[in-house]
Amino acid sequence: MDYILGVDGGGTTCRAAIATADGRLLGRGTAGPANIYSDPAQSVKSISFAANEACKDAGLTEEALQQTVAVLGLAGANAHHDPEGLAQTLPFASAQIVTDTVIALEGAHGAGDGVIGIVGTGSNFMARKGGQHYYLGGWGFHCGDQGSGAKMGERALEEALLAHDGLRRLCPLTEHILRQFDDDPRKLSEFARSAKPKDFAEFMPIILIYAQQQSSLALDIVEEGTTYVASALRLLSDDGKLPIALLGGLSQAYDAFLPPDLKQFIVPAKSDALHGALAMAERQNASNP
Amino acid sequence: MDYILGVDGGGTTCRAAIATADGRLLGRGTAGPANIYSDPAQSVKSISFAANEACKDAGLTEEALQQTVAVLGLAGANAHHDPEGLAQTLPFASAQIVTDTVIALEGAHGAGDGVIGIVGTGSNFMARKGGQHYYLGGWGFHCGDQGSGAKMGERALEEALLAHDGLRRLCPLTEHILRQFDDDPRKLSEFARSAKPKDFAEFMPIILIYAQQQSSLALDIVEEGTTYVASALRLLSDDGKLPIALLGGLSQAYDAFLPPDLKQFIVPAKSDALHGALAMAERQNASNP
Fold it and tell me: What's residue B1's pLDDT?
């Protein structure tokens, strides 16, 4: 095929990039949500829109898409019942749907083996060993996502209520949080009742600030998260036998918190998930001439 | 007034009882949900329906309600912005709205001082000391309700996913839970995504069974809950200076788990919340002749 296309489709944004068969970038496009599990119809719409925008940006007509090999990394692809069926409804010569984690790993480590930890609002982990993929975590806010901003934020709010009730000593972090709710625990409880994971995660910056000031509760919360993230990375990397890349909004924070024996195996990501998808599309196009 | 009426209005059921001014029970009625915070209109409907049913059961016409002093213990009364205003829309000669916790305490301890712990799907605590009310906990599933069936159930599911991921050893409890989801963690995660507190609480019976068999994770979960419940009860009772009654679906379980020094202060509830509401109405009627 003449062109390759990569798509990085997340829960809020879908990004697409089109390139020549040998990987020269021609154009980019963006669109709205593309989680294929939570809203497949919207996902298809966003993918098509972002791909058309990329064509326009490249000075190509939409017909170019029929000459395009696409790799799409989509949030929710692991939970969707028929990604292959959905791929066939897309306007590309061929399309492969994988999870957004797979293209993130490809972006971070290239075609080789390695481990990624994506730690932001949620948390999840993946390894490629001898070409095989291994997933860990990513089970969602309720019974998973340990070490994520959402979980650590929720824990901080819980501690603030315990302190209000007199079951813990008040500390700078819990005082700060209670003040944000006008020292009215009912307002905090009301907030928590309808809060989404990203709302809990918004308390992460102040947790990190108090942790830096050696405030003991903040350190305790961060340590709990670090213990989980470290165990996950150790298990997937066979104790550091594979390179590890940390991605997501909390990657820098964890870079500082992880124990030194693990930190030595951490490498910077080679590139981002969208480039990972493009690289996979290029490989796929080359292997099917 | 000629009659007194008590109402116990919870999130799923509303119960009413009408009696003579000196407390002789005449009739009972039940209706649907009566949480005045989450749905005030439905609450008023349920209260009126249950009160009318109680009249019918007593062989009275609805006009009797105009000769009735009512005390209504309603879930959500602490969060509603204007319980007095709402009370005036009800068909009674006079109506006092309190939380369902207040009538539960009245039922359990009579007019005297005491502490109650309500531990079931959620958890919350209350004390009456020298006629003053003190609340503790009850902040809801997300950042509160420690020691409740919902929280302990959620923790068990979390541990099952950690065991599936290889971050914990599998144990009889986590094996049991994973089997319930056909050993497919995606099914568990999917369940957790939409589960309500009562759905998590449904795992409590098997946690208790494995705890009885001395299975270490189950014991650990129960111990964590017990630590919280014990601290709450100690704090509110001034280390046992007030009698403590345990109510709710997990009260028997906690009766067994609580440490002996606390257990000695636990007394059986004198009667239930509906009788508590009736007793309060009788007292109120007697004090306003």
Answer: 84
